[in-house]
Design brief:
434 Repressor (Amino-terminal Domain); 4 helices
């Protein structure tokens, strides 16, 4: 799973608005904002968090570490995003 901190970092690295991420993930913008308020794993239905994770991965983010041990992100090169 991913953390709210990773979601915030990924959006910032991609220069993506919360509205754009919400649209790509098929969730409400308030859901994204609520997730980002938490540093750890946001309380939610797992399918909702997976939708956000999938949208960010499709945009070029790789999630590294684990929620308990050095959670972070890495941005793939544009050529690697296909």
């Amino acid at each position: 799973m991913i953390t709210g901190l990773q979601i915030r970092a990924a959006r910032a690295a991609l220069r993506m608005s919360s509205a754009e991420l919400a649209r790509l993930a098929g969730v409400g913008q308030q859901t994204i904002k609520r997730f980002e308020l938490v540093d750890g794993i946001p309380p939610s239905r797992s399918a909702t968090l997976v939708a956000v994770l999938t949208a960010l991965e499709a945009a070029g983010v790789e999630f590294v570490g684990s929620p308990e041990d050095a959670p972070g992100i890495r941005i793939r090169d544009a050529a690697d995003r296909s």
